[in-house]
Amino acid sequence: MKLKYTMLAVSDIEKSKLFYWNILGLRTLSHIEGHVVLTGGLALQTDDSWKGFIKKEISYHANDCEIYFEEENFNEFLEIFETKRSEEQIELIHEVIEHSWGQKVIRFYDPDFHIIEVGETMKAVCKRFLGQGKTIEEVAKRMNIPLKAAKMYAK
User: Fold this and answer.
1) Among 65, 85, 109, 151, which is least packed by CB within 10 angstroms?
2) d(CA 1, CA 3)
3) What is the structure's pLDDT at 87?
4) Helix axis angle, 147-154 relative to 122-131, nearest 10°?
5) Distance CA 96, CA 142 (A)
């Protein structure tokens, strides 16, 4: 068995498609009758179509899962995100935080209140710490990962 896509029910497929294009840089692979497949393994389905399949009501703003993205150039993403945030009326869940292992992330809602998290890649975290003068052993300890993993990220 192979996971193909994560599918989100959306109230306005064009608005959602543009959000994922403009904010996260995804592109459309196919768009057929209320169903859009985007790059990165994400699919969108109109809520009316989805209700027809599952025969149940749809509840938005559940805060029970998230779509997670990683960005190698996190600071560059943040600059672009901040310029588009007010245009797109994006609601933040929180500003940038740094997790205990050193990864910086931001969380916000898409137009239908699905949680989106964007974080820097672990490779970028490792390189940031190395750039601060830490040894690879110190980086592994700081990130709470095996030395072998730190060495792999440092390449």
Assistant:
1) 65
2) 7
3) 87
4) 90
5) 19
Name the 3-class secondary structure at 131.
helix
Q: Are 111 and 103 in contact (CB under 8 A)?
A: no
The pLDDT, as a whole number, for residue 86 is: 86
Return the closest-CA partner of residue 42 out of 13, 62, 63: 13
24-51 pLDDT tens trace: 999 999 999 899 999 999 999 999 999 9
Token digits for 110?
């898409």
Q: What are the tens digits of pLDDT across the range 74-132?
A: 999 999 999 999 888 999 999 999 999 999 999 999 999 999 999 999 999 999 999 99
SS (H, E, C) 61-130: CCCCCEEEEEECCHHHHHHHHHHHHHHHCCCEEEEEEECCCCCEEEEEECCCCCEEEEEECHHHHHHHHH
> Distance (Å, rounded) from C-alpha 90 to C-alpha 64?
19
Sequence letter at residue 124: A
* Under 8 Å between Cβ of 118 and 71: yes
Q: Where does residue 94 fall: left (phi above 0), alpha (psi -120 to 50 degrees), or beta otherwise?
A: beta
